[in-house]
Amino acid sequence: MINKNNSLEILNPRELFLRTSYRILKLKLKRIRIITKFVNHLLVVWHVINLSLTKVGLRRMIHKKKDFPYENYSAYM
Amino acid sequence: MKTILHICDWYHPIGGAEKLLFDTLKLLEDEGYTNIIVYNDHHDQKPTDLRPEYACKGLELFSYHYPGSRLLAKSAIKHLKKIIQKHSPDICHIHNFQNSFVTEYLIETLPCVRSLHDPRLYCFTNWKLLPDKSICPYPLGVECIRQGCISSGILPRNNFDRNAPWVLRNYKAHKKIPVLILESRTQIECILENGFSPEQIAWLPNFTPIMPEQKIKQFVRKHFNPDEKIVLFVGRASYEKGAQILVDACKYLKSKCKVVIITAGPLLDKIKSQALTYPGLLEVIPGLSYGETRKYYARSSVIIIPSVWLENFCLVGLEAYANMKPVIGSRIGGIKDWLKENETGWFIDPGNARDLAQKIDQALADMEKLEVMGRAAYDRVCKYYNGKLYFSRLMAIYEKGIKRFNLG
Questions:
Q1: For chains A and B, what is the number of CB pairs under 8 angstroms?
Q2: Residue A9's pLDDT is what?
Q3: What average pLDDT does range B394-406 have in this prediction?
Q4: B22 membership: H or E segment, kind and range
Q5: CATH T-level fold of B213-384
Q6: What number is the ipTM of this complex?
Q7: Where are the domains of chain B?
Q8: Which residues of chain A are at the B interface, by a Cβ-Cβ cutoff of 8 Å?
């Protein structure tokens, strides 16, 4: 039995079951969508932080090139 | 030292690095060493049942875009711990493998040596090519952002951006590795430019199994037809390997010959469609087994290596030499180490299709000279790139790895 337009509508058990299941499913889907959106936002934030940290690391990078003792490998050349 | 743990992403024959891995495993086993293999659990990869082999989940890097990556790595390390406890290997040889979490664990636990086959350790976009496809002259650093290899904006644009932290992490992890095995002078220079210490570096040119002279002569005689005049390319269908340069060279070719491209990769469909414009001249064979490819080496007159990136070594050249075939290759990267102009082949300017066509015409005009050069190529591979030499050098590298690990 459900209340519709201030009047009572009597439903058979099968229809009642279908309508309530549909409502529950809709609510669950909505919740899943909200959670997915939230997780996606978190992922983007995570990637943004990672990329910024990488770029900071790259900007700080200074390499000192040393010589390789090729003379020890004369048999290779 | 008798037991060696090998770890790799790919444990099935896809390219030169994997062929070298399988040849090295056989070489070590023939000398009485025990190999333990740990590879990435991927549906394409199956054990060979020739040695103890373990497929391990969570080893491959590409899942590492996600925050759960640390958990994946933890589970992989747990599996690895059990394998190390069971076999107690004396040394770990890290092959084509990009997982920094696992590499860090291995460096702390065992003496490790790492073979490098490409610039992925010090390049975010894998092949050390700038966005305009020219060769990158810079080490890892701020130029990666300035040149546009890494997004200068806040949001990551592509998977190179998402992967960047892991590449940087892997780079830092490798600063602590006892030995880096490098294949050519070009690669050594790249590694030094990126701030690695010369003490870490061991120079080890590739090798290829070589058949005795009489056998190889018989094999070539069986398959070679001088009237066919086959010009062969073997390699990945991707921009850096330069298959498209060979396709472009077809329009300038004057000799009557057949260009065969044995390839697989991202540009395969494009190369196949281009081949349709040269019926009878150009044939594209998608992916062949090592055995079948060898027959093509024997059938061909000259092998082409038109790479446009800083090729680390290019094993195809040694395979050509081992089959008594000269090479026409780009004057670039590791190719300069093993190709001798007018002795075992010819150089071309990288990316120059006209030059390539001219060199092919020049080579095919004198078949006798090609035979003499093929013979010189075979002598060169026997002298410098044989299994015996490779094995003794590899053992010295393993000893160095153990010594440096013990010194801390």
A1: 77
A2: 67
A3: 95
A4: helix B16-30
A5: Rossmann fold (3.40.50)
A6: 0.82
A7: 3-207+387-407, 213-384
A8: 42-44, 46-48, 50-55, 57-59, 61-70, 73, 76-77
